[in-house]
Amino acid sequence: MVVINRGAHAEPGTSLEFKTGNWRSSECPVHVHAKAPCHAACPAGEDQQAWFAWLQEGHVEEAWRELVSKNPLPSVTGRVCPHPCETACNRTSIDSALAIHNVERWLGDEAVAKGWAYPVEAPAEDAPCVAIVGAGPGGLSAAYHCLRNGLRAEIFEALPEAGGLLRSAIPPTRLPRPALDAELNRLLALPGIKLNLRCKLGRDVGLDELKHSHAAVILAPGCGLSKEWNIDGAVPTDLHEGLHLLREFMDHGEFPEARRVAVHGGGNTAIDLCRLMKRHGVEQVTLITASALPGPDTDPEDLINVVPRELEEALEEGIEIIEHATVKRLIMKGSRMTGVEIVALKKLLGTDGRMHRVQFEGTERVVSVDMVIPCIGERVDPEGMHNLMNRWHYLDARDRWSRTPQENVHAIGDARGDRGTVAEAIGDGRLAVEAVAARLQGRADPVEDTRPEMPASGLNPVYFGRISRTAVPKLPVAERTFEAEIEGDIGRMAALREATRCLSCGNCLACDNCWVMCPDNAVIKTAELASDGSHYVFDLDFCKGCGICAKECPTGFIQMAEDTWHEGD
Ligand SMILES: Cc1cc2nc3c(=O)[nH]c(=O)nc-3n(C[C@H](O)[C@H](O)[C@H](O)COP(=O)(O)OP(=O)(O)OC[C@H]3O[C@@H](n4cnc5c(N)ncnc54)[C@H](O)[C@@H]3O)c2cc1C
Ligand code: SF4
Ligand code: SF4
Ligand code: SF4
């Protein structure tokens, strides 16, 4: 071990000669590489701290390569992910969270512009091939991770183009199609991935057939059918449901004529539809939702399930939102709609011991509208997968690796019923393939990362100055159209600056504090990396357990643990 000497602090006759041996207080320092909260919160499994560390040193391509080792679509997620990583970021306790999604997007776009090669190798000609049903983000991620695991992938997609809801539902103002195409085309061009378009499971190919012809099957069909809308009394004969209208609009740029519209629901489809209709010229757009808007007293369980910045922008654009309410009845004059009767909802404890939303009799009121659009959620189109459906109309995926009751068949993404974001579908794709690869290579399931998370209270904030979060350019409401992207690019300088704000939670950032401040020279700095990935080791012969190193460690990487040192160790 090559030791980097601290020199003048350690003259003969000082603590260098006076070993403490085991007469330490009851604790001794240890290095604990805890999980950063951003990483723990990222459904795609990214290690943001690792790619920020590359950026801090100006190695942009390495940062991207680290990022895409988990998530092959950073241009996409950098634009649409609700970024739970930022909600969890410890930097909030000092000033504000890192702009992780903006840097992620910049890295993705930079890779496309520079043509950087994905960190994958072409699999062998005779490598096992995995059948993947659906070319949405879940299926695409699974295909990419097949290559990273030495497997080939064959995708079966019902539609004429790949992308799933990224293409058919998310508006270009949030995900411009050139950005989507650029990233998808690069991924689909990788050797080892075969894409069959217009090939629907249940119509053009059967599940049993795929199980026989491939080493494993990963189902990623998303949720293509709308849930049934239960409402008292008559409904208009030309009732349109939300996802269908949105898809029609993506294809033809038209909505049915209406002056005042009520959208009933509370997810991404509902919010996107409200915003597009308003921009299309509908005078009054009202969202009626059983969920709650964010506020200091909002129960997280009730919170409306949409990307927070989309909600903010919808309010900016003049969408009216009526929370804690549902549509009870439609008010019709002949075949024409004139309004909806809505009623407030409250939560009551049921006989099953769980809270249920019930209608609050006496709170009924009428909202005048000439069109109502149900957007109450989607379910799986069961064609070709009937045997795998559960009673909630989703595919029966049972564990972290999305295994179904059928051997070698996994079901990932929205089709599981407990997902709902692009990053979750991407994360599922990776985990399912890792389990498939482990099985094919005769290994046990991949080990889950059970390290503890580093809370903000475990950091020493004294060592971090306040640095404001990068401001993100945004189109003013008056300039928003159907095509122009609303959120802008932050650019290279801001991305690199943002990286310097990372606190390296739970991981050594080589600040030398422990090495310099230990009064007993018990911290040794080494030229080579130690087994825990840092350049520091403790010489317990000299440590007396004062804990100064742990207190002065900015990142919480040093913690005091029970001393188990024995004479002769
Ligand atoms: C309007 C809207 C806005 C959204 N906004 C956001 C957002 O801002 N951020 C976010 O993170 N998430 C958002 N979401 C959710 C996100 O789009 C989904 O969670 C994600 O796309 C799920 O990916 P997936 O691969 O599971 O399914 P999908 O994207 O639905 O892809 C499934 C694919 O499978 C194909 N398929 C279906 N059945 C078959 C079959 N039998 N045979 C062959 N192919 C089949 C489909 O054609 C489709 O291409 C939004 C959703 C909607 C509807
Ligand atoms: S995928 Fe989402 S949660 Fe993960 S790093 Fe990107 S923005 Fe954050
Ligand atoms: S400061 Fe850095 S490591 Fe810590 S949570 Fe935020 S992004 Fe992650
Ligand atoms: S004090 Fe600095 S050098 Fe020492 S372990 Fe903590 S972060 Fe690393």
UniProtKB/TrEMBL annotation:
* MF annotations from Gene Ontology: iron-sulfur cluster binding; metal ion binding; oxidoreductase activity
Asked whether the UniProt record includes Ubl conjugation among its keywords, one would answer no
- Top-level taxon of the source organism: Bacteria
Q: Which InterPro entries match?
A: 4Fe4S_Fe-S-bd, 4Fe4S_Fe_S_CS, DPD_II, FAD/NAD-bd_sf, FAD/NAD-binding_dom, Helical_ferredxn
The answer to whether the entry has keyword Metal-binding is: yes
- Pfam families membership: Fer4, Fer4_20, Pyr_redox_2
Q: Which UniProt keywords apply?
A: Iron, Iron-sulfur, Metal-binding
Any idea where the 4Fe-4S ferredoxin-type domain is? 534-563
The record, for PANTHER family, names: GLUTAMATE SYNTHASE [NADPH] SMALL CHAIN, GLUTAMATE SYNTHASE [NADPH] SMALL CHAIN-RELATED
- What is this protein identified as? NADPH-dependent glutamate synthase beta chain
Where does this protein come from, organism-wise? Answer: Tropicimonas sediminicola
